[in-house]
Every structure is written in C-alpha cells, then in structure tokens.
C-alpha cells in the first residue's frame, strides 16, 4: 500500500513478473510494475534475452528511480562495445583459468556398464573400417552415456571438412559425434543414413530414453528399412537424474512392484529385423554382436547391452577389490583408454595401476588387456573370471531379490 513501484528482476522468461501483473489487475491495484515486459509508462527496463549482469541491472534501476548516479565500467561506452568487452573478458578469464586449473574430462563411474558397451562398439567399428574402409558417425542421447561426448579433446566438427565428418575415437569420452535431445540420436541417424554417407551410422540410447522418446523413430526406421545400428544400454534404472525406476526395473515411481518391460520383446513386436542381446560386461560378445549387426543391410539392427548400474549394486553389496596390475604391464595404456576412473597411469614408472578405493572388480579391464597384465590379487587368475563379476543371470536375480526385500521392508514400515 505504501509502494508506488514494483521492480521484478529475474533471469529467463518473465514468469514472476507476468503473475505479479495478473494479480495486480485482478485485485485492481494501480501500481507501476517494471521488468522485462512493457508497461504503461515505459518500455521494458531489462532485456528479454541474454544474461543479466551488474551493469544491466544497475542501469535499469537508475532509469526506474530517476536518479543520477556516476559509475564507470572500464572499456564499455556503448552496448555493442559492452558486449564485445564482455566477450573479451570471458576469453581472458578462460585463458587464465586454463593455466591454473587442471583440465578434467567427463567421466563415467568405475564399473559402469556403459564402459563395456562403448569399448565393444569402438572396437567393432575400428575392425569394420579395416575391412570395408567405412568410417562412422555415432549419435548420442540424453543419459549417463552422454558423457561419451564431453571429453577433454572433443571439438566442434567442421561440416565443410570431409575428414572432420568422421572424427576418430581417441577416448571413450570422445565417442559421440552428436548429442541433441531425448530421442534425437536415432532420428538424426536416420537422416544421416538417407544422406548417402559412406559410413556406419549408429545411435545410442539408454533404457529410460528408449521408452521415453525413441519408439516412434524406431518404428519409422523399421517401416522405411533404414540401415542403422541402434545400441540400447539397459542399466535397469534412470540413473542420471537420481536412480528413479525405469520400465525395466520392476518398480514404479512409488516403490511398488511393477511389471518389467523387455526391450527385446518390444523390438520384436515392432518387427525390428535383427536384434542382439548381451551382457555389457562381456566385451568380446558385445563386439561380436555389434560386428554382426553392422553387416546387416536390410533395415535397422538393435543391440541391447544389459547390466545393472554399478552404483545401485554397491548400495546393497560390499565389494573388496582384488584386481591388480602385474609385472607383465608394458605401459601400452590400452587399459587407460577404457576410461575407467579406477585405472591409473604412473608417469614415472610408465605402468598402469589400480585404485583400490574406486575399483569394483567388474572385470572389464581384465578382458581388454592384451598382455594379460591385469589379474586377480587373490590367486593371480587372468581374464574375466572374478568372484564379484557374477554372470548376467545372477545379477538380474540379485536385483529382483532386492526389489522384493525393499517391498517387504516398506510394507512392514507402513
């Protein structure tokens, strides 16, 4: 009642301001409201687009209050000059930070099943290129696996440069070429396949994204016999947003028991002509299935890699790391290129080692080491044999047992 003006300062769309204006009209309150929207006494005070900063807000308040205030922003005499100066200051700050901040890549968790899937995909594509000369384009989607597009050395692709269209994979975190919106990967893949590129066109998505946004595009690929490879990474949870249940978990949003939807059966119902299902921890089988899928020419092929999110496994299982690097290590860094944060490379000894605080004994690194230098600490066994690396069937049984236990606990508490 004692105010003559209301000033609304907000980033993004003028949501609060619009509600304030609506309320004032409903209650017949005669008051000037200033913000991003036009009002009866003046044009919008703050810009509708772009980010607010101290200078913009200060200038707006001075205009509203009708006061004279001397201030100086060095090197900023006009709006254009101000924008240019902001850009220069940003570049200067970034350049300074690059000198004092250690560069860090995106990363997946130790034991993440996506590491195994990406490894199998990478090796299958590289081997196919040796045989056929075909390069590849891999289209990402929204989920934990999108970390495959945020690597330290990832770069914008210049579409006018023929070589850059097919960016070589140097790290698992540089494996993705595009990343747009949920369901966008398989849609983009179909457009690329129809553009006549001499390349293997791949799309990847997780189980949650598959159900949320990929089904229409998959139907379109089947109907039009579009030759693409669609890799579905089923880790049984919607992990990136906080491990909510997905349609493949066996729980609903309230934690109640629910039907488990099979991605394989849904693909069969949609008449996908070629479907492969495998354990994300079995990289040899993954590579074999992906290789076979790449050779299929009569429409889309789907590879479904299954393994529960390791973070969820660790919430109910205590694992003691038994993985070690032995004297056979030659420092080839093959295991480093897997992208697992539990594998360390010592620059002094030029050898790899295992961070036992992070390692979860998933066994992927044991499978990819060509020197058999990664073994089990307990008995020196080489390869993927490992007491913690239970087969997929047992892993699935453990998940269902945990769901049953959670339901029973909830029932008792309730």
Overall SS class? alpha/beta
Low-confidence stretches: 380-388
Main sheet strand line-up: 3-4-5-9-8
Largest sheet: 5 strands, parallel
Number of domains: 3
What best-fitting shape do the alpha-carbon axes yield? globular
H and E order: EHEHHHEHEHEEEHEHEHEEEHEH
Fraction of residues in helices? 25-40%
What is the CATH level 1 assignment of the largest domain? Answer: Alpha Beta
How many helical stretches?
11
Q: Architecture of the largest domain, according to CATH?
A: 3-Layer(aba) Sandwich
User: CATH fold name of the largest domain, please?
Assistant: Rossmann fold
N- to C-terminal separation? 49 Å
Radius of gyration: 27 Å
**CATH H level of the largest domain: which superfamily?**
Thiamin diphosphate (ThDP)-binding fold, Pyr/PP domains
How much of the sequence is in beta strands? 5-15%
Please tally the β strands and state the result.
13
Mean of all residue-level pLDDT scores: 85
Tell me what you see in this structure.
The radius of gyration is 27 Å and the shape is globular. The protein contains 11 helices and 13 strands. Mean pLDDT is 85; it is low at 380-388. Helix 4 (113-132) packs across helix 8 (283-295) and helix 5 (184-194) packs parallel to helix 6. The chain folds into 3 domains: 5-100, no CATH class; 113-313, 3-Layer(aba) Sandwich (Rossmann fold); 320-376, Alpha-Beta Plaits. By secondary structure, it is α/β, with parallel strands linked by helices.
